[in-house]
From TrEMBL:
<protein>
    <recommendedName>
        <fullName>Glutamate--tRNA ligase</fullName>
        <ecNumber>6.1.1.17</ecNumber>
    </recommendedName>
</protein>
<feature type="domain" description="Aminoacyl-tRNA synthetase class I anticodon-binding">
    <location>
        <begin position="384"/>
        <end position="455"/>
    </location>
</feature>
<dbReference type="InterPro" id="IPR014729">
    <property type="entry name" value="Rossmann-like_a/b/a_fold"/>
</dbReference>
<comment type="similarity">
    <text>Belongs to the class-I aminoacyl-tRNA synthetase family. Glutamate--tRNA ligase type 1 subfamily.</text>
</comment>
<keyword id="KW-0030">Aminoacyl-tRNA synthetase</keyword>
<feature type="short sequence motif" description="'KMSKS' region">
    <location>
        <begin position="250"/>
        <end position="254"/>
    </location>
</feature>
<dbReference type="GO" id="GO:0005524">
    <property type="term" value="F:ATP binding"/>
</dbReference>
<dbReference type="InterPro" id="IPR020058">
    <property type="entry name" value="Glu/Gln-tRNA-synth_Ib_cat-dom"/>
</dbReference>
<dbReference type="InterPro" id="IPR033910">
    <property type="entry name" value="GluRS_core"/>
</dbReference>
<dbReference type="InterPro" id="IPR001412">
    <property type="entry name" value="aa-tRNA-synth_I_CS"/>
</dbReference>
<keyword id="KW-0547">Nucleotide-binding</keyword>
<comment type="subunit">
    <text>Monomer.</text>
</comment>
<feature type="domain" description="Glutamyl/glutaminyl-tRNA synthetase class Ib catalytic">
    <location>
        <begin position="3"/>
        <end position="316"/>
    </location>
</feature>
<keyword id="KW-0963">Cytoplasm</keyword>
<dbReference type="GO" id="GO:0006424">
    <property type="term" value="P:glutamyl-tRNA aminoacylation"/>
</dbReference>
<dbReference type="GO" id="GO:0005737">
    <property type="term" value="C:cytoplasm"/>
</dbReference>
<dbReference type="InterPro" id="IPR045462">
    <property type="entry name" value="aa-tRNA-synth_I_cd-bd"/>
</dbReference>
Length: 457
Protein backbone atom coordinates (compact mmCIF):
# COMPACT_ATOMS: atom_id res chain seq x y z
CA UNK A 1 0.00 0.00 0.00
CA UNK A 2 1.27 3.52 -0.82
CA UNK A 3 0.97 5.26 2.51
CA UNK A 4 -0.13 8.92 2.51
CA UNK A 5 -0.55 10.86 5.74
CA UNK A 6 -1.29 14.47 6.50
CA UNK A 7 -0.88 17.03 9.26
CA UNK A 8 -3.77 19.49 9.19
CA UNK A 9 -3.53 22.30 11.74
CA UNK A 10 -5.41 25.56 11.54
CA UNK A 11 -2.94 28.40 10.87
CA UNK A 12 -4.16 30.44 13.82
CA UNK A 13 -1.03 30.66 15.96
CA UNK A 14 2.30 29.02 16.70
CA UNK A 15 2.18 25.24 16.93
CA UNK A 16 2.85 23.78 20.37
CA UNK A 17 4.49 20.60 21.54
CA UNK A 18 1.17 18.68 21.27
CA UNK A 19 0.74 19.67 17.62
CA UNK A 20 4.39 18.68 17.07
CA UNK A 21 3.58 15.24 18.52
CA UNK A 22 0.86 14.81 15.87
CA UNK A 23 3.10 16.09 13.08
CA UNK A 24 5.93 13.78 14.17
CA UNK A 25 3.69 10.73 14.56
CA UNK A 26 2.61 11.25 10.95
CA UNK A 27 6.12 11.99 9.70
CA UNK A 28 7.68 8.98 11.44
CA UNK A 29 4.86 6.73 10.27
CA UNK A 30 5.43 7.93 6.69
CA UNK A 31 9.22 7.48 7.00
CA UNK A 32 8.82 3.95 8.30
CA UNK A 33 6.59 2.95 5.42
CA UNK A 34 8.21 4.97 2.64
CA UNK A 35 5.04 7.04 2.38
CA UNK A 36 4.11 10.64 1.59
CA UNK A 37 3.48 13.45 4.07
CA UNK A 38 1.02 16.16 3.11
CA UNK A 39 0.99 19.46 4.98
CA UNK A 40 -2.57 20.74 4.78
CA UNK A 41 -3.66 23.99 6.31
CA UNK A 42 -7.15 23.95 7.69
CA UNK A 43 -7.73 27.64 6.89
CA UNK A 44 -11.42 27.69 6.01
CA UNK A 45 -11.94 30.11 8.90
CA UNK A 46 -10.72 33.12 6.99
CA UNK A 47 -11.05 35.49 9.92
CA UNK A 48 -8.65 33.66 12.21
CA UNK A 49 -6.33 32.00 9.71
CA UNK A 50 -3.25 33.85 8.54
CA UNK A 51 -0.61 33.06 5.92
CA UNK A 52 1.97 34.34 8.39
CA UNK A 53 1.00 31.57 10.82
CA UNK A 54 1.07 28.95 8.04
CA UNK A 55 4.61 30.08 7.21
CA UNK A 56 5.63 29.91 10.86
CA UNK A 57 4.20 26.39 11.13
CA UNK A 58 6.20 25.30 8.07
CA UNK A 59 9.30 26.91 9.55
CA UNK A 60 8.77 25.05 12.85
CA UNK A 61 8.29 21.77 10.99
CA UNK A 62 11.48 22.33 8.98
CA UNK A 63 13.33 23.12 12.19
CA UNK A 64 12.17 19.78 13.58
CA UNK A 65 13.34 18.05 10.39
CA UNK A 66 9.94 17.58 8.75
CA UNK A 67 9.87 18.47 5.05
CA UNK A 68 6.42 17.87 3.54
CA UNK A 69 6.08 16.25 0.13
CA UNK A 70 3.15 18.53 -0.63
CA UNK A 71 1.65 21.67 0.94
CA UNK A 72 -1.97 22.62 0.42
CA UNK A 73 -4.51 25.14 1.70
CA UNK A 74 -8.19 24.38 2.20
CA UNK A 75 -9.05 27.99 1.35
CA UNK A 76 -8.02 27.19 -2.23
CA UNK A 77 -10.31 24.20 -2.50
CA UNK A 78 -13.83 25.54 -1.91
CA UNK A 79 -15.01 24.34 -5.33
CA UNK A 80 -14.30 20.76 -4.23
CA UNK A 81 -16.34 21.18 -1.04
CA UNK A 82 -19.20 22.82 -2.95
CA UNK A 83 -19.28 19.81 -5.28
CA UNK A 84 -19.47 17.41 -2.33
CA UNK A 85 -22.29 19.46 -0.84
CA UNK A 86 -24.27 19.11 -4.06
CA UNK A 87 -23.71 15.34 -4.01
CA UNK A 88 -24.94 15.06 -0.44
CA UNK A 89 -27.97 17.25 -1.09
CA UNK A 90 -28.87 15.21 -4.16
CA UNK A 91 -28.68 12.05 -2.03
CA UNK A 92 -30.94 13.63 0.62
CA UNK A 93 -28.13 13.45 3.18
CA UNK A 94 -27.69 17.18 3.78
CA UNK A 95 -30.75 19.07 4.95
CA UNK A 96 -31.46 22.75 5.69
CA UNK A 97 -32.21 23.82 9.26
CA UNK A 98 -33.39 27.23 10.41
CA UNK A 99 -33.24 27.19 14.21
CA UNK A 100 -31.43 30.00 15.98
CA UNK A 101 -28.96 29.11 18.75
CA UNK A 102 -31.59 30.13 21.34
CA UNK A 103 -34.20 27.87 19.79
CA UNK A 104 -31.74 24.99 19.73
CA UNK A 105 -30.91 25.52 23.38
CA UNK A 106 -34.60 25.47 24.29
CA UNK A 107 -35.10 22.23 22.35
CA UNK A 108 -32.12 20.72 24.12
CA UNK A 109 -33.56 21.59 27.53
CA UNK A 110 -36.95 20.15 26.64
CA UNK A 111 -35.37 16.86 25.53
CA UNK A 112 -33.33 16.68 28.71
CA UNK A 113 -36.40 17.30 30.82
CA UNK A 114 -38.09 14.39 28.99
CA UNK A 115 -35.04 12.23 29.72
CA UNK A 116 -34.17 12.04 26.04
CA UNK A 117 -30.58 12.35 24.79
CA UNK A 118 -29.85 16.05 24.22
CA UNK A 119 -29.29 15.67 20.49
CA UNK A 120 -30.85 17.56 17.64
CA UNK A 121 -34.35 16.13 17.07
CA UNK A 122 -34.31 16.52 13.28
CA UNK A 123 -37.38 18.73 13.34
CA UNK A 124 -36.15 20.55 10.21
CA UNK A 125 -36.31 17.30 8.24
CA UNK A 126 -40.07 17.42 8.56
CA UNK A 127 -40.43 20.94 7.14
CA UNK A 128 -42.44 21.18 3.94
CA UNK A 129 -41.24 23.23 0.98
CA UNK A 130 -43.80 25.91 1.88
CA UNK A 131 -42.62 26.08 5.50
CA UNK A 132 -39.03 26.45 4.37
CA UNK A 133 -40.01 29.16 1.91
CA UNK A 134 -41.82 31.13 4.60
CA UNK A 135 -38.88 30.84 7.02
CA UNK A 136 -36.61 32.17 4.30
CA UNK A 137 -39.10 34.94 3.55
CA UNK A 138 -38.69 35.94 7.25
CA UNK A 139 -35.01 36.46 6.42
CA UNK A 140 -33.72 33.23 7.94
CA UNK A 141 -30.83 31.55 6.17
CA UNK A 142 -30.36 27.79 6.48
CA UNK A 143 -27.45 25.97 8.02
CA UNK A 144 -27.00 22.44 6.71
CA UNK A 145 -26.86 19.23 8.70
CA UNK A 146 -25.55 15.85 7.64
CA UNK A 147 -28.11 13.10 8.18
CA UNK A 148 -26.22 10.55 10.24
CA UNK A 149 -26.98 6.94 9.37
CA UNK A 150 -28.61 6.27 12.70
CA UNK A 151 -32.12 5.24 13.63
CA UNK A 152 -33.37 6.77 10.40
CA UNK A 153 -36.82 6.88 11.86
CA UNK A 154 -37.48 8.41 15.24
CA UNK A 155 -34.36 9.88 16.86
CA UNK A 156 -35.90 9.35 20.26
CA UNK A 157 -35.41 5.60 19.84
CA UNK A 158 -32.74 4.19 22.03
CA UNK A 159 -31.36 1.82 19.42
CA UNK A 160 -27.58 2.17 19.01
CA UNK A 161 -25.90 2.71 15.68
CA UNK A 162 -22.28 1.99 16.18
CA UNK A 163 -19.43 2.98 13.92
CA UNK A 164 -16.38 0.87 14.67
CA UNK A 165 -12.82 0.87 13.45
CA UNK A 166 -9.50 -0.66 14.36
CA UNK A 167 -7.48 2.25 15.63
CA UNK A 168 -3.74 2.24 14.88
CA UNK A 169 -3.05 3.43 18.41
CA UNK A 170 -5.99 2.35 20.54
CA UNK A 171 -7.17 -0.88 18.94
CA UNK A 172 -10.92 -1.46 18.62
CA UNK A 173 -12.89 1.78 18.88
CA UNK A 174 -16.61 2.45 18.67
CA UNK A 175 -18.64 5.63 18.46
CA UNK A 176 -22.39 5.40 18.91
CA UNK A 177 -23.90 7.73 16.31
CA UNK A 178 -27.22 7.64 18.14
CA UNK A 179 -25.61 9.72 20.86
CA UNK A 180 -24.72 12.50 18.42
CA UNK A 181 -26.64 15.30 16.75
CA UNK A 182 -26.59 15.44 12.98
CA UNK A 183 -23.52 17.63 12.54
CA UNK A 184 -23.72 21.02 10.88
CA UNK A 185 -21.45 20.95 7.82
CA UNK A 186 -22.26 24.38 6.38
CA UNK A 187 -23.05 27.50 8.43
CA UNK A 188 -25.74 30.13 7.70
CA UNK A 189 -23.15 32.32 5.98
CA UNK A 190 -22.13 29.46 3.67
CA UNK A 191 -18.82 28.84 5.44
CA UNK A 192 -17.64 25.31 6.15
CA UNK A 193 -17.02 23.69 9.48
CA UNK A 194 -14.00 21.44 9.72
CA UNK A 195 -15.76 18.09 9.08
CA UNK A 196 -16.59 18.14 5.37
CA UNK A 197 -13.45 19.80 3.93
CA UNK A 198 -11.32 17.39 5.93
CA UNK A 199 -13.10 14.32 4.50
CA UNK A 200 -13.21 15.66 0.93
CA UNK A 201 -9.47 16.41 1.06
CA UNK A 202 -8.62 13.05 2.59
CA UNK A 203 -10.52 11.37 -0.24
CA UNK A 204 -9.12 13.49 -3.06
CA UNK A 205 -5.56 13.56 -1.74
CA UNK A 206 -5.52 9.79 -1.32
CA UNK A 207 -4.86 9.92 2.43
CA UNK A 208 -4.52 6.34 3.63
CA UNK A 209 -3.86 6.96 7.36
CA UNK A 210 -5.27 9.72 9.53
CA UNK A 211 -3.18 10.04 12.68
CA UNK A 212 -4.23 12.73 15.12
CA UNK A 213 -5.02 13.54 18.73
CA UNK A 214 -7.74 11.68 20.63
CA UNK A 215 -9.68 14.96 20.76
CA UNK A 216 -10.94 13.77 17.36
CA UNK A 217 -12.34 10.35 18.26
CA UNK A 218 -15.99 11.43 18.08
CA UNK A 219 -15.31 13.32 14.84
CA UNK A 220 -13.93 10.11 13.41
CA UNK A 221 -17.28 8.36 13.96
CA UNK A 222 -19.01 11.12 12.01
CA UNK A 223 -16.32 11.31 9.37
CA UNK A 224 -16.39 7.58 8.66
CA UNK A 225 -20.13 7.97 8.00
CA UNK A 226 -19.35 10.90 5.70
CA UNK A 227 -16.69 8.96 3.77
CA UNK A 228 -19.29 6.28 3.14
CA UNK A 229 -21.95 8.84 2.17
CA UNK A 230 -19.48 10.15 -0.44
CA UNK A 231 -18.95 6.59 -1.67
CA UNK A 232 -15.34 6.48 -0.47
CA UNK A 233 -13.44 3.91 1.54
CA UNK A 234 -12.50 5.47 4.93
CA UNK A 235 -8.76 5.60 5.68
CA UNK A 236 -7.15 3.86 8.65
CA UNK A 237 -7.44 6.04 11.76
CA UNK A 238 -5.11 6.40 14.73
CA UNK A 239 -5.70 8.60 17.78
CA UNK A 240 -2.83 9.31 20.12
CA UNK A 241 -3.12 10.79 23.59
CA UNK A 242 -2.78 14.54 24.07
CA UNK A 243 0.05 16.33 25.82
CA UNK A 244 -0.69 18.82 28.57
CA UNK A 245 1.50 21.36 30.32
CA UNK A 246 3.63 20.17 33.28
CA UNK A 247 0.80 21.25 35.58
CA UNK A 248 -1.86 19.49 33.53
CA UNK A 249 -3.41 22.37 31.55
CA UNK A 250 -4.48 21.81 27.97
CA UNK A 251 -2.46 23.42 25.18
CA UNK A 252 -3.68 25.76 22.52
CA UNK A 253 -2.02 27.66 19.71
CA UNK A 254 -3.50 30.88 20.92
CA UNK A 255 -2.03 30.68 24.43
CA UNK A 256 1.51 30.26 23.09
CA UNK A 257 2.46 27.94 25.98
CA UNK A 258 5.06 25.30 25.05
CA UNK A 259 5.22 26.61 21.49
CA UNK A 260 7.95 25.16 19.31
CA UNK A 261 9.16 28.70 18.66
CA UNK A 262 9.63 29.37 22.39
CA UNK A 263 11.55 26.11 22.89
CA UNK A 264 13.77 26.99 19.92
CA UNK A 265 14.34 30.48 21.33
CA UNK A 266 15.27 28.84 24.61
CA UNK A 267 18.14 27.10 22.81
CA UNK A 268 16.73 23.57 22.92
CA UNK A 269 17.92 21.23 20.16
CA UNK A 270 15.27 20.08 17.67
CA UNK A 271 16.01 16.42 18.43
CA UNK A 272 15.47 16.99 22.17
CA UNK A 273 12.04 18.42 21.35
CA UNK A 274 11.26 15.63 18.87
CA UNK A 275 12.43 12.84 21.21
CA UNK A 276 10.34 14.11 24.10
CA UNK A 277 7.30 15.02 21.97
CA UNK A 278 7.12 11.46 20.65
CA UNK A 279 8.23 9.38 23.64
CA UNK A 280 6.35 11.20 26.42
CA UNK A 281 3.14 9.38 27.33
CA UNK A 282 4.20 6.10 25.75
CA UNK A 283 5.54 2.81 27.02
CA UNK A 284 8.87 3.55 25.31
CA UNK A 285 11.69 4.72 27.57
CA UNK A 286 12.46 8.42 27.17
CA UNK A 287 15.93 8.68 25.75
CA UNK A 288 17.76 11.25 23.69
CA UNK A 289 17.56 10.13 20.09
CA UNK A 290 19.98 11.77 17.71
CA UNK A 291 18.06 11.72 14.42
CA UNK A 292 14.51 11.35 13.13
CA UNK A 293 15.62 8.19 11.29
CA UNK A 294 16.62 6.65 14.61
CA UNK A 295 13.39 7.88 16.20
CA UNK A 296 11.43 6.29 13.35
CA UNK A 297 13.02 2.94 14.23
CA UNK A 298 11.83 3.29 17.83
CA UNK A 299 8.43 4.68 16.91
CA UNK A 300 5.46 2.44 17.48
CA UNK A 301 2.04 4.17 17.39
CA UNK A 302 0.41 1.62 19.67
CA UNK A 303 2.98 2.36 22.41
CA UNK A 304 1.14 5.65 23.13
CA UNK A 305 -0.90 5.39 26.29
CA UNK A 306 -4.59 6.16 26.49
CA UNK A 307 -4.55 9.04 28.89
CA UNK A 308 -3.21 12.57 28.49
CA UNK A 309 0.46 12.95 29.38
CA UNK A 310 2.19 15.86 31.08
CA UNK A 311 5.04 17.42 29.16
CA UNK A 312 7.73 18.68 31.47
CA UNK A 313 10.14 21.14 29.81
CA UNK A 314 12.67 20.42 32.58
CA UNK A 315 13.17 17.01 30.91
CA UNK A 316 14.17 18.82 27.73
CA UNK A 317 17.31 20.22 29.31
CA UNK A 318 18.37 16.75 30.43
CA UNK A 319 17.87 15.38 26.93
CA UNK A 320 19.60 18.40 25.48
CA UNK A 321 22.72 17.70 27.53
CA UNK A 322 22.83 14.13 26.26
CA UNK A 323 22.23 15.13 22.68
CA UNK A 324 24.97 17.78 22.76
CA UNK A 325 27.33 15.39 24.52
CA UNK A 326 27.12 13.00 21.57
CA UNK A 327 26.94 15.59 18.81
CA UNK A 328 29.73 15.21 16.21
CA UNK A 329 31.58 18.37 15.20
CA UNK A 330 30.35 18.26 11.58
CA UNK A 331 26.80 18.63 12.83
CA UNK A 332 27.49 21.85 14.71
CA UNK A 333 30.40 23.39 12.79
CA UNK A 334 28.21 25.93 10.96
CA UNK A 335 26.12 26.78 14.00
CA UNK A 336 29.22 27.40 16.12
CA UNK A 337 30.37 30.03 13.64
CA UNK A 338 27.33 32.09 14.70
CA UNK A 339 28.88 32.23 18.19
CA UNK A 340 32.23 33.30 16.77
CA UNK A 341 33.66 29.80 17.25
CA UNK A 342 35.82 28.73 14.32
CA UNK A 343 39.35 28.28 13.08
CA UNK A 344 41.80 25.40 13.41
CA UNK A 345 41.03 24.77 17.10
CA UNK A 346 37.25 24.64 16.71
CA UNK A 347 36.89 20.87 16.50
CA UNK A 348 39.24 20.16 19.38
CA UNK A 349 37.42 22.82 21.37
CA UNK A 350 34.02 21.27 20.59
CA UNK A 351 35.14 17.82 21.66
CA UNK A 352 36.53 19.32 24.90
CA UNK A 353 33.40 21.22 25.93
CA UNK A 354 30.40 19.36 24.45
CA UNK A 355 29.99 17.24 27.58
CA UNK A 356 29.43 20.37 29.67
CA UNK A 357 26.67 22.17 27.83
CA UNK A 358 22.99 22.54 28.68
CA UNK A 359 22.51 24.48 25.47
CA UNK A 360 24.66 25.03 22.40
CA UNK A 361 24.94 28.74 23.25
CA UNK A 362 26.85 27.77 26.43
CA UNK A 363 29.75 26.84 24.13
CA UNK A 364 30.26 30.58 23.53
CA UNK A 365 31.08 31.05 27.21
CA UNK A 366 33.74 28.33 27.12
CA UNK A 367 35.13 29.72 23.89
CA UNK A 368 35.62 33.01 25.67
CA UNK A 369 37.25 31.24 28.60
CA UNK A 370 39.65 29.45 26.29
CA UNK A 371 40.36 31.94 23.55
CA UNK A 372 39.96 35.37 25.06
CA UNK A 373 41.81 34.74 28.25
CA UNK A 374 40.17 34.88 31.61
CA UNK A 375 41.48 37.09 34.35
CA UNK A 376 38.98 36.10 36.94
CA UNK A 377 40.51 38.09 39.77
CA UNK A 378 40.13 35.22 42.21
CA UNK A 379 41.22 36.14 45.67
CA UNK A 380 43.51 33.21 46.43
CA UNK A 381 44.78 32.65 49.95
CA UNK A 382 48.49 33.11 50.53
CA UNK A 383 48.91 29.35 50.78
CA UNK A 384 47.11 28.80 47.45
CA UNK A 385 49.09 31.58 45.83
CA UNK A 386 52.38 30.01 46.95
CA UNK A 387 51.17 26.62 45.75
CA UNK A 388 50.16 28.01 42.36
CA UNK A 389 53.50 29.76 41.98
CA UNK A 390 55.25 26.49 42.47
CA UNK A 391 52.85 24.69 40.17
CA UNK A 392 53.20 27.16 37.29
CA UNK A 393 56.97 26.83 37.53
CA UNK A 394 56.51 23.15 36.76
CA UNK A 395 54.54 23.62 33.52
CA UNK A 396 55.95 21.20 30.94
CA UNK A 397 57.50 22.45 27.73
CA UNK A 398 55.50 22.23 24.52
CA UNK A 399 54.35 20.36 22.42
CA UNK A 400 51.24 19.72 24.50
CA UNK A 401 48.62 17.04 24.06
CA UNK A 402 45.92 15.19 26.00
CA UNK A 403 48.56 13.76 28.37
CA UNK A 404 50.08 17.10 29.37
CA UNK A 405 47.66 17.81 32.22
CA UNK A 406 48.34 14.44 33.79
CA UNK A 407 52.09 14.88 33.48
CA UNK A 408 51.93 18.38 34.93
CA UNK A 409 49.71 17.54 37.91
CA UNK A 410 51.82 14.44 38.66
CA UNK A 411 54.90 16.64 38.83
CA UNK A 412 53.03 19.18 40.99
CA UNK A 413 51.89 16.42 43.33
CA UNK A 414 55.44 15.07 43.69
CA UNK A 415 56.90 18.50 44.35
CA UNK A 416 54.24 19.91 46.71
CA UNK A 417 52.43 18.35 49.64
CA UNK A 418 49.05 18.68 47.92
CA UNK A 419 46.83 16.10 46.28
CA UNK A 420 43.15 15.66 45.38
CA UNK A 421 40.88 18.67 45.66
CA UNK A 422 43.51 20.82 47.35
CA UNK A 423 45.65 20.40 44.26
CA UNK A 424 43.08 20.49 41.46
CA UNK A 425 40.72 23.22 42.70
CA UNK A 426 43.17 26.15 42.69
CA UNK A 427 44.55 25.06 39.32
CA UNK A 428 41.08 24.94 37.76
CA UNK A 429 40.15 28.28 39.31
CA UNK A 430 43.34 29.90 38.05
CA UNK A 431 42.88 28.53 34.53
CA UNK A 432 39.14 29.00 34.03
CA UNK A 433 37.86 31.15 36.86
CA UNK A 434 35.23 28.49 37.59
CA UNK A 435 34.88 25.64 40.06
CA UNK A 436 33.75 23.16 37.42
CA UNK A 437 33.77 22.68 33.68
CA UNK A 438 35.26 20.57 30.91
CA UNK A 439 38.17 18.22 31.57
CA UNK A 440 41.34 20.25 32.02
CA UNK A 441 43.27 17.59 30.14
CA UNK A 442 41.20 18.68 27.11
CA UNK A 443 41.36 22.41 27.78
CA UNK A 444 45.07 22.68 28.47
CA UNK A 445 46.29 21.93 24.92
CA UNK A 446 43.73 24.45 23.64
CA UNK A 447 45.16 27.14 25.90
CA UNK A 448 48.79 26.43 25.05
CA UNK A 449 51.75 27.18 27.29
CA UNK A 450 51.96 30.92 26.76
CA UNK A 451 48.28 31.54 27.54
CA UNK A 452 48.42 29.17 30.51
CA UNK A 453 51.38 31.04 31.96
CA UNK A 454 49.51 34.30 31.48
CA UNK A 455 46.87 32.99 33.89
CA UNK A 456 49.32 32.65 36.73
CA UNK A 457 47.71 34.65 39.53
N1 LIG B 1 -2.32 18.91 23.33
C1 LIG B 1 -2.22 18.17 22.23
N2 LIG B 1 -1.50 17.03 22.25
C2 LIG B 1 -1.37 16.28 21.12
N3 LIG B 1 -1.95 16.60 19.94
C3 LIG B 1 -2.66 17.72 19.87
C4 LIG B 1 -2.85 18.57 21.00
N4 LIG B 1 -3.62 19.61 20.63
C5 LIG B 1 -3.89 19.44 19.32
N5 LIG B 1 -3.34 18.31 18.86
C6 LIG B 1 -3.41 17.79 17.49
O1 LIG B 1 -2.82 18.73 16.60
C7 LIG B 1 -3.47 18.66 15.32
C8 LIG B 1 -3.79 20.07 14.86
O2 LIG B 1 -4.86 20.55 15.62
P1 LIG B 1 -5.40 22.00 15.72
O3 LIG B 1 -4.93 22.85 14.61
O4 LIG B 1 -6.85 21.89 15.97
O5 LIG B 1 -4.62 22.45 17.03
P2 LIG B 1 -5.11 22.93 18.46
O6 LIG B 1 -3.87 23.35 19.16
O7 LIG B 1 -5.94 21.87 19.07
O8 LIG B 1 -6.05 24.10 18.07
P3 LIG B 1 -6.28 25.59 18.50
O9 LIG B 1 -5.87 26.35 17.28
O10 LIG B 1 -7.74 25.60 18.76
O11 LIG B 1 -5.42 25.89 19.71
C9 LIG B 1 -4.70 17.80 15.53
O12 LIG B 1 -4.46 16.56 14.93
C10 LIG B 1 -4.85 17.64 17.03
O13 LIG B 1 -5.37 16.39 17.40
Amino acid sequence: MNVTVRFAPSPTGNIHIGNARTALFNWLFARKSGGRFIQRFDDTDRERSKQEYADRILYDLHWLGIFPDHVDYQSKRFAHYDAAVEKLKAAGLLYPCYETPDELELKRKIRLSRKLPPVYGREALALSADERASLEAEGRKPHWRFLLPNHAGDPSETQRTDISWTDLVRGEETVDLASLSDPVLVREDGSYLYTLPSVVDDIEMGVTHVIRGDDHITNTGVQIALFKALAAEPPVFGHHNLLTSATGEGLSKRSGALSIASLRDDGIEPMSVASLAVLTGSSEAITAVSSLEELAQKFEPSAASRSAARFDPADLVLLNRTILQNMPFEKVRDRLVAFGIGGPQAEEFWLAVRGNLDRLADAAVWWRVVSQGTRPGIDFSDADRAFLDEAFDLLPEEPWNGETWKAWTRAVKDKTDRKGKALFRPLRLALTGLESGPELSDLLPLLGREETLARRP
